[in-house]
Amino acid sequence: SIGTVDVNDILGTNNQPILSYTDSGKSPWALKPHCIKGLQPKKQKEGKVFCVQTYRRHTGQDISLITTPETAYQTVNALDEDPVSVFLDYEAAEEYREESLPWKIVSIEGKDMGVKATRKIGQYETFMFDQASIVVALDLDNEAVIKRADYGELLETATSQLGNPDTIRKLCKGSPDGSPPVRSSHLEDIMENNAFGSSIGDIEVKGLFPSIARINHDCVPNAFIMFSPSGLSVGLKAYRDIAAGEEITVSYLPLGMTHSARQAALKGWGFECSCSLCADSASSIAAHDAKRERIKALESEIQATFQEGFVQGAIRLGQELLELTREEGLTPMLADEYVMLAKLHLAAQDEGPAEEYGELAIEVLKDLGFLGDVDEGGKEWDLESLLRAFGGQRLI
Ligand SMILES: C[S@@+](CC[C@H](N)C(=O)[O-])C[C@H]1O[C@@H](n2cnc3c(N)ncnc32)[C@H](O)[C@@H]1O
């Protein structure tokens, strides 16, 4: 590391578009970028340069990016994007803006703060939106890329340059037990505990969304987070009807994990989960775990059975997988399973059932907001366009 450097001293010819953008007086950034050169990786000439670039949004919720200048430059057209219009059509967006917010941040016993619905929320409704306040390139988690102290300095600058830094500083930092204290600063703890993985183009980042960060975990969540293509906005969609006054929850973990795997993973957030699935009787937990382990085993068994040429056998296993997934309420996993069964039936030359599974997959994907009304060719989705979109040789 060569310590703190000025972005204008280090941008080479490859970065010319960014330089001229900055030089032309049209720079979107509110302050001069604060940059630090990372460590020199083996076999490379020099380390990457990471800069803090802060933008003052019209909404008043500023954003600081800690990325390479090139990555920050990719976000320029999305810095002011309005999440409500990203996730809702024109009419629904207008309606949403007219009503008072259907959620509020409140104190929740045993969990510090959390978010509750202020009215009934319908299944698959997108009802909460947020903009990223801090975005950090995932590279920065790597001690071989940047010194911890330099990362801490970039985080501190990124936060203090926001219009309302206290919104970030007051987020909960968790109390992970067991693992050694690898993080050097309070802000690093806050990022670790509250940020979500996202991407800007093909660069992996983590984004801190200050309202969404107040949502607690549940292993059977009632909502899930969707990212805008820019990676700078999120929308929250309900898996099921949510009653007024009910706590809004998301899963911090991939769905379908067993009890012990969930407990181990949640230690990173420093709490013991007491959701309905985790607080169930020992026999019920064991029954759920057995189903979840069977689901995992079936995924590879189906693949192997199909590869050995036993298509009908693979279909039977696929039906068992569907049943268990439904019993466990793991709805989002159903879409892949329906597509897989459609592919298996096509392999068995049963076009009727293949079409039916295709329709079921399209229905789930549309409900979850992963498919628009029409495909890329502007036609209603059908099995053919679905399989094109979900191409690839793998069954599941
Ligand atoms: C992303 S924050 C969620 C909001 C947080 N409760 C707050 O007051 O800001 C994650 C932290 O919330 C707490 N938390 C989240 N889900 C929980 C749960 N199901 N039970 C207990 N604490 C939970 C843990 O302290 C965790 O580290």
From TrEMBL:
Residue ranges of every copy of the SET domain listed in the record: 101-253
Key words of the record: Signal
UniProt superkingdom: Eukaryota
Record-linked Pfam families: SET
The protein, known as: SET domain-containing protein
